[in-house]
Amino acid sequence: MYFEIKDLHVFYRAIHALKGISLNVEKGEIVALIGGNGAGKSSTLNSISGIVQAASGSVIYQEQELCGLATDEIVRMGIVQVPEGRHIFPKMSVQENLEMGAFLRSDKELIQRDMERVYDLFPRMKERRNQAGGTLSGGEQQMLAIGRGLMGEPDLMLLDEPSMGLAPILVEQIFDIIFEINQAGTSILLVEQNAQMALAIADRAYVLETGEIVTKGTGLELLNDPKVQAAYLGGESEEEKLNKGEYYF
User: How many domains does the chain have?
Assistant: First the structure.
């Protein structure tokens, strides 16, 4: 087994955030985790990364237990998280932000190779490489956050809400790049509220509700599941959201 979560429980004081969830990612897959606010999606990723300590259960990566390890140890093993809200370094330049993504590495030639790869994926980042991260648009900051994650040379990338707040045209670009990253060999666990886009590129997916996995299947199966459609694929159209000014370019 490449990556597996078994019976994971997480508490925030009295709040039982994850109630014994189990899921797996096979090497080379895109696996999506969808659900509403407060479902436990970010808690799942933070538990994998060592940011949040599990009360019980296992997180196993290539036959090694991750629970109890420090975050930097987990990154060194090849798991990199791109956090919700981007969390770039606003006063640092684009180039410096990318260099921070490689802070655990010492292989200068390979770091430079990966820097060029990021600039190939995100030409706009190359154009703005000397610009402070905080002056970038929301969409550009998301590109920078993903690029910084790639600089950690991940084998498994954890993406937390990469499309949040972005205009539809940028959402499509971000998902195209996620697919391209996966095709180049990086496995991906994708947390995303945009269920339509996430399920469209996912090999498999899980639906999380109030800390429990309630449905699982292939991306296509869940796209066509009437309950999933009713709960997660309805609501306002993208055009309505755009007209209300809910997006960042």
Answer: 1
Contacts of 226 (CB under 8 A, 6+ apart): none
Could you tell me if residue 248 is inside a domain? no
CATH number for the domain that contains residue 20: 3.40.50.300
Identify whether 190 is part of a domain: yes
Query: What CA–CA distance (Å, rounded) separates 87 from 79?
Result: 18
Question: Is 237 within a domain?
Answer: yes
pLDDT band, very low/low/confident/very high, at 239 (cuts 50, 70, 90): very low
Q: Give strand ranges (E) for the chain.
A: 3-12, 15-25, 30-34, 56-61, 64-65, 79-82, 156-160, 187-191, 204-209, 212-218
Tens of pLDDT, residues 161-181: 999 989 888 999 999 999 999
Token reading at 130 = 């000397």
The overall average pLDDT reported for the chain is 93
Domain extent, residue 126, equals 3-243
Residue 248 pLDDT exceeds 80 = no
Q: 118, 125 in Cβ contact below 8 A?
A: yes
Strands 187-191 and 156-160: what pairing?
A: parallel
The answer on pLDDT for 234 being more than 80 is no
